[in-house]
Amino acid sequence: MRKRLLSILFAVVLLATFAGCGNTADPKTTEGTTLAQEDNYKPDSTLRILMVGNSFCYYYVEELYELLMENPPEGITAVEIYNLYYSGRGLATHYDRWFRNKPGDYDLFKVDATGRQKMDTHQKWTLEQALAQAQWDYISLQGSVPNGSYMNVNKREATRDGIVEMAEPLLDRFHELHPHAQLLWHRTWFFEVGRVGSDGYVYKEEDGPKYDAGMQEICDYMCNEFDKNKPYDLKIVNSGAAWTRARKLNETANLLPYGGLCARLDINRFGDMRMNSGDGYHDGDIGGGQLLNAYMWYMAITENTDLTASKYVPVYKYVTLEYPMSTELVDMLKTAAMNAIK
């Protein structure tokens, strides 16, 4: 009964928030979106991926590009990865901006053989405009949740229902415009221990398992129950599970990895010298999070779950100095990634 009341309360709040916005199934579209219609869809030798999310869908795409080009899917000779990027924002932001047809405020980045570039530096993008840029093979939506909701078991059902309420029209729109694309649900990882939230809360060691369990429950539902009656099969990129395993492995390995800003500056964003997180946040507290995330994406896209043959080792640069990632760390990240999908 209590869960039901919580679900009703959550729904009332959600409806009140978006009251008067119009019909979610038919929002106003942006000029130029007709390019995305796939009536004349023809597969070619270029693999095209669109990632909708915050920095968790941004800080590893160069590594993913290298992995895909090192051992590409059959028939693929080129790869293009796009980030529709809004820093620090979660699922509610994407829903709100699409639902209300707000003016463009995303950045769109592209990674290909020429490196990373920002698409039209004088323009801010909408979701509809990004969807219209190509015939996508993969489109992902990042499954971020409101802070705190995942740590209280009594709130999980309401949190899940809220996520479904926001994710469903977005995913339906993705499929409507790109019925040939594989839709992906991207589960990211937990804030590192010691991070201070916007409300002043300091994240503790014991918060990690609570978040992990809550997010896994949501992801299991999205990929096993939510899409049962849908015309598409939602797949998961579970980088959160890989991060959990890598962190446990690193508790005994005590590796000092090279990667991200930490390797370049020997310091993380909290001002200490732990040398165990790439930039103090996005790598969690294991380091090498970019490569770990790239491994999970690579396996989801190629369905090749054996990473042992990969010879790719990221080399991070700062001015004229180069910092190759250690062999020990690369092997640990491979093990964590492969174990995360078993």
**SS strand fraction:** 5-15%
Instruction: Profile the largest sheet.
Output: 7 strands, mixed
- Per CATH, the architecture is 3-Layer(aba) Sandwich
Globally, the shape reads globular
What is the CATH superfamily?
SGNH hydrolase
Structure class: alpha/beta
DSSP strand count: 9
Per DSSP, the total helix count is 10
Helix/strand order: HEHEHEEHEHEHEHHHEEH
Biggest sheet strand line-up: 4-3-2-1-5-6-7
- The helix fraction, in percent, is 25-40%
End-to-end CA span = 36 Å
Low-confidence stretches: 1-36, 257-280
General description of the model:
The chain is an alpha/beta fold and 342 residues long. It has a single domain, classed as SGNH hydrolase (Rossmann fold, 3-Layer(aba) Sandwich). The protein contains ten helices and nine strands. Strands 4-3-2-1-5-6-7 form a seven-stranded mixed beta sheet, sandwiched between helices. Helix 6 (207-226) links the parallel strand 6 (182-187) and strand 7 (235-238). The longest helix has 22 residues, at 156-177.
